[in-house]
Design brief:
The protein is α/β, with parallel strands linked by helices. The chain is built from 14 helices and ten strands. The chain has two domains: about 250 residues, 3-Layer(aba) Sandwich (Rossmann fold); about 80 residues, Arc Repressor Mutant, subunit A (Orthogonal Bundle). It has an eight-stranded mixed sheet with strand order 3-2-1-4-5-7-6-8, sandwiched between helices. A two-stranded antiparallel sheet has the order 9-10. Helix 1 runs parallel beside helix 2 and helix 13 packs across helix 14. The longest helix has 22 residues.
Length: about 375
């Protein structure tokens, strides 16, 4: 694809490959760097990158690289740097279509630097199945896995296996319309049972009572997310609407055991997100919003954040703004700047005091300021 501004990326219709390539490669570089060089108590020397829906490596009728080639470019370009991915990362690319994997094989082997890759990519031509994923994950090495959980027969246990090892993250991108069509489809009931488990009957009961498509969609995702959250995983969601209609095209998810991963994907995706007038991201794009904004009518707003912080002020006394953000923002749309704004508002209204890093009354607001409860 031609170079395009990040904020404009979703202004035209994007397929799964384009979305994955735009976002996933950025996260891949971060993930590798953190695991290989940012661990104080654990030495990690090997990582697995697993893409079960790889494609041919280039977009159709184009010289623009897609995810597999971009990943290998990142690995090769790290040679001689402080983060040498060439030594550490093993890549596995799968596609169920034989023609696509043959094209990918040709495109990879034609790379000028192919012979310099220490770990040659492993190419697989199998349906993206439980057995394939299980065999790759048996090595108990930190892995970054891309899956469309509704594309093939994956049980929830298999999705959880992809994030079982410490440092392993699961990246999911799927078309919600496929799921909606499958809820009451007897021919795929086995697949839906494997993914949603006991939640499927709950979803069906809700479907029989609720006819609103938006509420149905939200409920499906809520029950899907619950299966991860109940096990203590961090989960980030981003909604992608079609650019020409107010209907969901895809949902992007990251599942991880590591808090830092959650904050990083949030930081990556905030530049794609649309925002409310008060500066809170909705972590969605191409959404038709109400022209009149009512802070008390939405779930997340600066006003609501201020109210919540004051309601629980005893929990935040003697903590920095940075600490409050990391503690409070999990499973919310709030980003770090929102906390600075909300706390600055409370400070200006003389509802709280602020101390600087030296423990003195602050003259200006920074993320290192400490909250002081006023009598």
């Amino acid at each position: 694809m031609a170079a395009i501004k990040t904020e404009d990326f979703f202004k035209k219709k994007r397929n799964t490959s384009e979305i994955k390539s735009e976002v996933f490669v950025k996260y891949f570089k971060f993930w590798c760097g953190v695991l290989l060089y940012a661990q104080k108590f654990k030495r990690i020397e090997e990582l697995l990158y697993i893409d079960l829906f790889a494609g041919p490596g280039y977009y159709e009728n184009s010289n623009d690289a897609s995810t597999p080639i971009k990943i290998l470019d990142s690995i090769y370009q790290s040679n001689g740097t402080n983060i040498d991915l060439n030594k550490a990362v093993k890549t596995f690319f799968n596609d169920e279509e034989k023609k696509l994997i043959e094209k990918l094989d040709h495109n990879i082997s034609s790379l000028k630097y192919y012979k310099e890759l220490i770990n040659k990519p492993v190419l697989l031509n199998e349906p993206a199945s439980k057995n394939l994923l299980s065999s790759l994950l048996q090595q108990k090495t930190p892995s970054l896995t891309f899956i469309d959980p509704f594309g093939y027969s994956y049980s929830m246990e298999m999705l959880l296996q992809a994030v079982r090892e410490w440092g392993s993250d699961l990246f999911m991108l799927f078309n919600i319309n496929r799921i909606r069509a499958a809820i009451n489809n007897k021919s795929v009931e086995g697949l839906m049972n494997e993914i949603f488990q006991h939640e499927l009957n709950v979803i069906k009961d809700y479907y029989n009572q609720e006819t609103n498509p938006t509420k149905r969609e939200e409920y499906i995702l809520e029950r899907f997310e619950k299966l991860f959250k109940d096990k203590g995983y961090y989960l980030f969601k981003f909604r992608i609407n079609f650019p020409d209609k107010n209907q969901t095209s895809h949902y992007l998810y990251l599942v991880s055991k590591v808090r830092l991963a959650y904050f990083k994907i949030k930081d990556i995706m905030k530049v794609y997100s649309e925002y409310q007038p008060d500066g809170v991201p909705i972590f969605a794009v191409n959404v038709k919003s109400n022209p009149i904004f009512y802070p008390d009518m939405v779930k997340y707003s600066i006003q609501n954040l201020e109210n919540d912080l004051m309601l629980n002020i005893n929990n935040y006394v003697n903590k920095t703004i940075e600490m409050i953000y990391e503690e409070h923002s999990i499973n919310t749309n709030y980003i770090k700047g929102n906390y600075k704004q909300a706390i600055e508002n409370l400070w200006n209204d003389k509802k709280i005091g602020l101390l600087d890093s030296r423990g003195k009354e602050s003259k200006r607001i920074t993320y290192n300021c400490t909250i002081l409860k006023l009598k």
